[in-house]
Design brief:
CATH superfamily of the largest domain: HUPs
Radius of gyration: 29 Å
Distance between the termini: 54 Å
Mean pLDDT: 89
CATH architecture of the largest domain: 3-Layer(aba) Sandwich
Number of strands: 15
Strand order of the largest sheet: 7-6-11-12
Shape: globular
Number of helices: 20
Strand content: 5-15%
Length: 580
Amino acid sequence: MVPRNKLSSHYIEMKAFYYAEKGVWEMKKEILQVLQNVSPIQLEEHALERPAYAHLGDFALPCFQFAKVLRKSPAIIAEEIAASIKHPSIRKAEAVNGYVNIFLDRTRITSEILHAVVEQGATYGSSNEGKDGVVTIDLSSPNIAKPFSMGHLRSTVIGNSIALLMEKSGFKAVKINYIGDWGTQFGKLLTAYRKWGTEEDVRKAPIETLLTLYIRFHEEAEQDPSLNDEGRAAFKALEDGDADALALWKWFKEESLSEFQRIYDLLGVEFDSYNGEAYYNDKMEPVVQELEEKRLLVESDGAQVVDLGEAIPPCLIRKSDGATLYATRDLTAAMDRKNTYDFVKSIYVVGNEQSLHFTQVKQVLNKMGYAWSDDMHHVPFGLILQDGKKMSTRKGKIVLLEQVLTEAIDLAHRNIAEKNPTLANQKEVAEAVGVGAILFSDLKQHRKHDIEFNLETMLQVEGETGPYIQYTNARAHSVLRKAGEVSAFVVNEVNDFEWETIKLLEQFPQAVKRATEELDPSVIAKYAVDLAQAFNSFYGNVKVLTDAAHLSYRAALIQSVSIVLTESMRLLGMKAPEEM
RNA sequence: GUCUCAGUAGCUCAGGGGAUAGAGCAACAGCCUCCUAAGCUGUGGGUCGCAGGUUCGAUUCCUGCCUGGGACACCA
């Protein structure tokens, strides 16, 4: 180890940037180490930053924080550090305005990065952080007999992407579709069906018909509140195992699931479990009993609750009529999942609005003595609003996902007919692009704040969109087809367009890491936009095929971009057609 | 009322304490005899909600206020 005192020493230990055994680039850490060796002060990981502008170098160290300790001006400290840096991968280091700006040796680094990406292919950026630990992911969770809404889309695509990210980082993901198939609403639906519905209509268009019935029920119940009692009674009959009610419920459920399946097929999402609320209906008693035994249940206004202190309201476990609630079922489900899968992490991709609910469930589990409640994470997302307000199923204010998807696919089809009419498998590509547009418009922003529903924005194909990423990749493939096989290559010089692209390729593993840690697919989406923009800029400004001297190296660059873009899209649940 | 999330360009949004706050859309001006124009290049556009505080330095962290969304016991 080089002692760390080192403004005096002008010699820095040489160290390769590339860890062959890990297969991961750690450029930033290496630079930090180089700086640490010449810095008079212990550097934090944050110390090193990326300059805002390319002409200020590839990395920078602000020296203002050292001024007080060293009693020298930042400018002088920067000068001294800059003068001390010597490293085979650093071309130059200059002091500007109290910063040390570091310029890397482009050809050397480019060569190492490109060789790594081409060699590792789709596994570039993968890791074994997770050590095969199981992560359960609660996602999608639509309510049967109700349409698949835009809100469920968010949960489905965010959850699916998180599962893919987890797998890439070495976890085992278990995707659970916690179907909303139980509760008072089914009593209401049964009542409405018996009053106004026909078997034929339901067979023809199940969800549409059931939704119409559901809306009508709520309209009529406003005039005639006794309907609500009828609904509750019908649900009671269902709970008690009434054969007729049960048969209808099963039928509605099957029809709903087969409709949902069409959407899941389109989105390319599969589940490991469909255990919904009804599945837990007969499993809650032991949990309530356990709560009782642990003396956590308190009676309050006739109901059984768990008190959670001043800060948050108590968690309702049993209604005054003895019936259980949503929280009771979720508590049971959480324990069941722990027993079944022994997860190291349990993720719930559910809307913002349920934050309090999950806080309560976690705290109840914690009070029961289950330390693993700390491994439960609610991943919230904002509501999709219409006219500035929450969409309401009951009032029929809802946008159907399937219509949106169909429209996006039609648009993609029209674009292909216009721009690339000779393309072979047009239907397949239109589907990939249309679905990609919808997926990406949702995944690129993880902001928890609410989103105003805007079909026009979702169907956009230009700028920061899914089709833009797909198009960029298709272009890359097109050049590669014409350039022939990527063979051995030597990097002799690297221009600015290439360098910006290379630096982004280097950042991919960090993007994956951060997206995984923060459970945030938007990190990958934004990264993909950055990489596509850098590549398109290169593509628009550099002629590849006509320049034989640089062809093999540039082909390697283009192939690397394609590998990383394709992998980014895969992590978002998108398809990456090679032509479009 | 309490808790919580948010407020950045005309619109939609990025910005992990640092230099001149960035993209995309929209507007305007260029670029296809040339690797896919779903693209590239350029122009205009900002009191980063307001007021304090911490810091050498705050869009970023803290406090208060204003505005908006959501949640707040027998729905899920």
